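Lab meeting prep.
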Amino acid sequence: MGQVSCRLLVALVLPVLALAGAAGCQATTELDRGDELLAEGRNAEAVAVWRQALAQTPRDTGLLTRIATAQVRMRRFDAAEATMLQAVAIEPESPKVRQNLALVYLRRKDLDRALKTFHEVRGLEDTYPETNYYIGLIHEMRGDEATAVDYYIQDVNNGPSKAWERLDRHKDRQRAAGLVRPAPSSRNVLVFSLACLALAAAAFALRQLLVGRREAPPFDTES
């Protein structure tokens, strides 16, 4: 299985981090303004707006996640990590908060710490959405195809998942390499089905013949 490119990693991680942050905050004019600035790519200004709001609600982990999102986009990974560690300290039992910390590590390509943190998320909630997907992604980045597929399958079994796309690509590569046998054609399936029916009919006819012979009356020997 091919490695995941840096560009693909950015596309996979950043929207998730931002979305998770947006879900945890109350909608206010200040927060909305920060969202608008982030959407416009004015990340530093967004951070400034959210820090003003954070002064009023310092334990708002949704705000902290928003700030970390902007810091990641500015490639200030150490600052983003510190921000999310602050959020984890406030809500240590929250799988959402801890997963966002893991996403910061993943975006920084600190795979060891990302993997460890995603497994911590599993310890809090073993079916938390997309955790297994990201664990699989890390194994794919490392070239461990079999383990990646196992985690992708676990993720799709938990519900709707982006892992379907990775599994489809895996199947396509296996098929191209001749590792997956093609499915039988509809004509072959039809021929096989007709042959089975013919065999069953012959067996039934033979059974009826044998039963008829056993039940036939004996010859009249008195005449």
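Slide two material, second protein:
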Amino acid sequence: MKKIITIGIALLLFLNHTYSQTAGQVAATSAAIAGITYVAIKTSQKELSKEISQFRSKEYIIDEIIGDVGEKVVTFETESLASDDSGGIISVAFNCDEVDERGLLLAFFGDHRNQYGVASTAYAFRYIPLEKAQNLLTRITQVKDDNKKYMSDESDVNNVYIQFEDIKFVLYRDNGENIRVFWNGFEVIWEKTAYNRTRRRLDKWFK
């Protein structure tokens, strides 16, 4: 009898542990995809890019960065730094003195591959506080300069990989300098012109 009771308790503990793991995995999956917006209606990339940079970015800022303000009146500033109408990265500068937050908002825009491998047009935002954003852009530029010869020796063969938190960057040359960015199911090209404009205008905007 004692043996049967012991086996029963062990089985209950195992089932409880398994359920907890499954619940945690479901919660993590839901949280991971919660910030991604899929575009159901077919629209032009240029119109969608404008919508993201001018309107959806502000929605993200008030919901996710500023948060609930109750009866208070809160002022904040945004400036679109660089946009890629064909899909890639849209950069927006943001400042709000009242919540002491300022920095760079990156909108990843284009094909997104979900956990089942299905690709659909989508967008999502990744906020980087100012000092971290400036350090990241400086680092990317420095790595590009330091490895210019290596990447030029074998175009589209020699790659340089760096990482910032959950964002991964692969630098390479293929008819010019390229930055391929991987984040949260997105794989996009950060065009040279858009990248340089983001770096230059971010510093200028916060002077």
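Talking points for slide two:
Residues 2-34 form the longest helix (33 residues).
Residues 35-205 form one domain.
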